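Morning, I've got a small favour to ask if you have a moment. I've dropped the whole record in just underneath, so have a look.
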Amino acid sequence: MKNNSNQTGREQVFEEDLVKEVLDDFKTRQQERKSFETQWELNMNFLMGNQYCSIGPSGEVEEYDKQFYWQEREVYNHIAPIIESRLAKLINMKPTMTVVPASGDERDVKTAKISKKIVNAVYNKLCVSGVISEANNWSEVCGTSFYKVSWNPGKGTILKDDEMGKVCSGEVEVTVCPPFEIYPESSSCSDIDNCKSIIHARAYHVDEIKSIWGVDVKGEDINVFSLDNVTAIGGYGYFGNTSKVTSGVRKNYAVVIEKYEMPTVEFPNGRLIIVAGDKLVYLGELPYFNGNDGERCFPFIRQACIEQPGCFWGSSIIERLIPVQRSFNTLKNRKHEFMNRLSMGVLTVEDGSIDTENLEDDGLSPGKVLVYRQGATPPRFMNFDRVPVDFAAEENMLLNEFTYISGVSDLLRNSLSSYSNMSGVALQVLVEQDDTRISITAEKIREAIKTMAKHVLRLYRQFATVPRLSKIVGDNGEIEVFYFNASDISSDDIVFETTNEVGETVAQKRSMVFDLLNAGLLHDENGKLSNRMRVKALDLLGFGVWENAQDINELHLKKASSENLKFLKGETKIEPLEVDDHDIHISEHTALMLGNEFAKKAERNEKLTEIVLKHIRAHKQMKAMQESIENSKITEK
């Protein structure tokens, strides 16, 4: 009993020290990142239209008041449409990915095709396009956003449900982490791979903590930064007629800190430490083999708007536009004040000649009887010239500054542009210039999407131990249902089948498809358009899948592949049919015999080679017989 008591006491002291170490580390990282966080808050304020604020000496976002009560303080928000235009461009990014086989072996080629189907099925099932749009919003405003690719054992198909509880097959989860939730080891790290540890901090309600980790934590009032229903460190507030970002307060919440540590000499498999409030709720190894060559690494993927050399945090276009926006607001307000003076006038009144209080309240309304002291100078308006041309010149210069700094021109922003006199070539050049700057951000998004696909495949390879059913829309328009498990994923080498789509409009894509059709590049060797290619062309034109008829060649390929698997399993009684496309079957069976897997099987089974050769000869004989019959019919005619 004494030894057990001492052991329990030592464990308790160890946990307390570990919790204190994690909390101290978290506070240190908070202080280091404070300046970046304040800049993000300022960016969000300017995007929402609260533009009379700045970062004060205290390091917080502070609002400033009018110098005089009569000053106009309207906001002419050009930042919001610029960001909306960039997001509209980036939303067109739907890259098509494929998986490169691990080798030239036929089995690896087939598993690579299955891996591609898995990625497409998961992306459709999890609505990853919406997740990417959310991440784009955060990266455009704050400069950086993060994806978290994890495994949720409580999702997927229910395998068992009894009094002991529910057991599920598990499923991949892809969520967006705003930059407010991520705390790197140092802001000087250029990327996630250069960090030795990362903290993911998020505010949870105490009941949610109890449900997930089974511990009771004391709730507190937590300042959180949330955007609508997105939970993160911070908050949105709405005051008066202007929306602005403020520190909100969540009642009965606690901060959950997940600290991920890369493998070291002391901890060769890394560590994951989870602290909820002031309690240790989890301590273990890094859970995922999601790195290159099966290594353990962080489940996070970083996406930056504009890279800053030697800095973990990316930069936002808004940071560059804030000075221009301030100058534009000032110019427009001063211009309107000058116009008010012109239209309403400024009266000069001799002291004591009239009742000035009455004049201030009512002004010089039409038909007003103005009584002034006898012998005094009557009130009169001051003379003002027209609005100086400098206002218009400066306004045009600031509008050009918006275009120059953001890289988003009026051609992209304006719904009705005045470019009717330009040639098509000139308009195309302008469009390409618009795409040049934003293509840097688009490439970062493509890289993040590709890395996400790798993480998805690696997690399925680690956890998909039981066969799983999935479905996608196939190339020929049919709903394709397929089973897979971890052994079917032999490669995670993801490449893009398409180029950067950010500069391609729907009209451009349709024009390209029609050009390819007219040139005959999509026709088969007989000069005809196959069912499969017709469905693909309709899909590229944006009309969706119009046909559900299966391509006959695809069915022959599937049947031949099925026969190949039967050969490898040792089946011998596989006979060709008259309805088979013998050329396709002969090619598929020949490819099987040339593969490494077949060679290994043939070494253990001497009859395998002869069985497959016999089957190929049967196809050739039936093909020759069918050709002979066709030739005889032609001769008779």
The chain has 16 helices and 21 strands.
